Amino acid sequence: MKRTLFLATAVLSTVYACAQEKPLDMRMDFEDYDPPSSLVVPEHVLTRAKFPFIDVHNHQFNMPSQDLTKLAEEMDKLNMAVMVNLSGRGRGSTDHLEKALENVKKTSPKRFIVFTNVDFSGIDEPDWQQRTVSQLEEDIRKGANGLKIYKSLGMFNKDSKGNRIHIDDPRIDPVWDKCAQLGIPVLIHAADPRQFWQPIDQNNERWLELKTHPGRRHDTDPVSWETIIAEQHNIFRKHPKTKFINAHLGWYGNDLKKLGELMDQLPNMYTEIGAVIAELGRQPRAARDFLTKYQDRVMFGKDSWVPEEYTTYFRVLESADDYFPYHKRYHAFWRMYGLDLPDDILKKIYYKNALKVIPNIDASAFPK
Q1: 309-335 in b/e burial notation, b at 16+ Cβ within 10 A?
Q2: What global pTM score does this model have?
Q3: How many helices (H) and strands (E) in the chain?
Q4: Average of pLDDT values for 64-75?
């Protein structure tokens, strides 16, 4: 027994010693493996867009007290002519929206467009429809120029009985119709990437993101991705006079054939590229064909104000570069390629399409 114990201890000691002698590169975790490319090709790191552009998907939660003059100076460095702040009401406050609009009017009226938001918490109340429509009218009268719907509708918002509020709940119909009457678009974010609902295993392309950001997992949610997306498409069909901007390429950036079919079926649906530029960059030929065919209905969006990240968008849209990285490896571990879009399509994505859909943007800053 003692001899057996001695031998076992010796073996373990030898294994441990060998492990300790292994060089660091043999012991690193998978997520740490990120070698620089040895490929020698032309590189064009673009820190400024070729044309002035409108970012239709941004969030400035502190706009009521923000130094917008300083923000506009930072936008100038990127050649961003107009930023659309989708978080007009902040956490639901009318006062927040009014102060944001006042700050814009006083300091930078030509540089910022503000969207309002809707509170669904009282949807069971008998006067919710009238109250909400009246509030929407009032917000537009004060200076808001669109409605932003957060992903909480369809995922997290519940009625007083604890039931999930469907995106196509008929009680919301008057809101969509009122947007058409007022001539304002609805920018709607429904669900999240489909992989967030799939098993978190070796077959999930977003595994690294879900490992580092576990709060984004929906694999145990009671409602499916397909259900939420179908509800969104239902309101597009039901309200053909309302212009909807389907955020994040409608989460079909990885299936442009399907997205194209939806564009053909839903002429009132526009879309934008916020947070999904990596999907386009990994399929340059298919993406270029898609943006050529639907060049009148795709807009520029980013989804967050991180100035140094815009260069990725410019490089994908404007350059012909090969095999360059995305700015967040956990978000897209693959390399991308430039689409080398022609100027006429760039102008539409950067500003012309937004000028058509979003009212009251000063067009004087943009080329014809």
Answers
A1: bbbbbbbbbbbebeebbbeeeebbbee
A2: 0.92
A3: 13, 10
A4: 97
